[in-house]
Amino acid sequence: MKQFFIDVETTGMDYKIHEIIDLSYQVYDDGEHRLSAAHYIRPDRWDSIDPEALAYNGYTRNQLLTFQFQSSFLTGLLCNLSILDVPDFKDKYTIIGWRVKFDIDFLREFFRSYNLDKAIFDYYFSADYIDVYQLAMRKAVLNSAWKPKDMHLSTVAEALGIDVFNYQLHTSAGDVKLCRDVYNILINE
What we know:
Elements: E1 2-10, E2 20-29, E3 32-40, H1 51-57, H2 61-65, H3 70-82, E4 93-97, H4 100-113, H5 117-124, E5 125-131, H6 132-142, H7 153-159, H8 172-187
Parallel strand pairs: 1-4, 4-5
Antiparallel strand pairs: 1-2, 2-3
Helix pairs in contact: 4-5, 6-8, 7-8
């Protein structure tokens, strides 16, 4: 199975007006690690930045000024994607993440803004995805003895025995690693 674990941090919650500012991914092909990357992306629409989003992810406007321009990010991402082999249209990468529809919407909108959603996004990625949050919810419903105090990624990870201290929480790099570790525990139970 081709897996594309992803996490994004954004300038707000609405993918139509807000933008990705921090995107990390880990790529696996039949369990073999193929690629990991983290990108910090300068937004174009400064007037749409939600201060609550920056408070959540810990970035400041001054930090955003130091991030790479979107065109540079696109070039790097396309270069990374080009090394991933998709020889068969039935064997695309499955996107996996925590409440991953949010990440997918933002990534697809980014590609759409460059008119690449069909040419690139649909070429590499399956329409199917795996939401690790839903896997955790299923475990909580089916296993009455397992009840995390809430369903946040870090809380679920702790309830599964993961020490979250070593992860950079609320950064895409830290959250994508933690999500993959949670996923591996949930699917191997």
